TrEMBL record:
<dbReference type="InterPro" id="IPR000086">
    <property type="entry name" value="NUDIX_hydrolase_dom"/>
</dbReference>
<feature type="domain" description="Nudix hydrolase">
    <location>
        <begin position="51"/>
        <end position="187"/>
    </location>
</feature>
<dbReference type="GO" id="GO:0019693">
    <property type="term" value="P:ribose phosphate metabolic process"/>
</dbReference>
<dbReference type="GO" id="GO:0047631">
    <property type="term" value="F:ADP-ribose diphosphatase activity"/>
</dbReference>
<dbReference type="InterPro" id="IPR015797">
    <property type="entry name" value="NUDIX_hydrolase-like_dom_sf"/>
</dbReference>
<dbReference type="GO" id="GO:0005634">
    <property type="term" value="C:nucleus"/>
</dbReference>
<dbReference type="Pfam" id="PF00293">
    <property type="entry name" value="NUDIX"/>
</dbReference>
<dbReference type="GO" id="GO:0006753">
    <property type="term" value="P:nucleoside phosphate metabolic process"/>
</dbReference>
<keyword id="KW-0378">Hydrolase</keyword>
<protein>
    <recommendedName>
        <fullName>Nudix hydrolase domain-containing protein</fullName>
    </recommendedName>
</protein>
Amino acid sequence: MPNEPNVTAIDALPASEARWIEFQKISWNDQAGKSRVWEAASRKTRGKSGVDAVAISTVIRHPNRSPSTIIILQYRPPVDAICVEFPAGLVDEKETPSDASLRELHEETGYQGKLKYISPTIVSDPGMSTANMQLATVEVTLKEGDKEPEQALDDGEFIERVVVPLDDLYSRLIKYSDEGKKVDARLWHWAAGLHFAKTML
């Protein structure tokens, strides 16, 4: 039986040991002309596309089922919890965000589909990080009798995929949160937008 993941220590990370991120000291002038300093974290992996990462919202269409989407459950050490997220990943050095979205969806979930939309470059946490991303929408069309595909995970990746009817997504995320899981902000905002569009407009 797999072990439960857990944090065993938290230490300061010297800049010389950091493989994936670096701290930046940003000097800037505000609207009143006053000189200020801002501290930020920055990824070291940004490639030629200028985009750090992609996240993938999926719409699964089946002849006899309601439209569904795919979410993943994955332990994240910075929050010491299982996180509920969109499939997502970094854009490789010479890769486009569109190509990365289809690759990451297949690797993390096994599903393949058609890219229907990709967002402009958007920022993730601009008060603390230079990180950016694009949000892709991929349509997966299934036939009656199609089997669930195999994931293509890398060694050391432990990702559980969950297919959820779109009508149930908002309530499922609340249930996961009540269980102590952490819902990623991008997924929550997407699900809340769908829910509020149906209940408040």
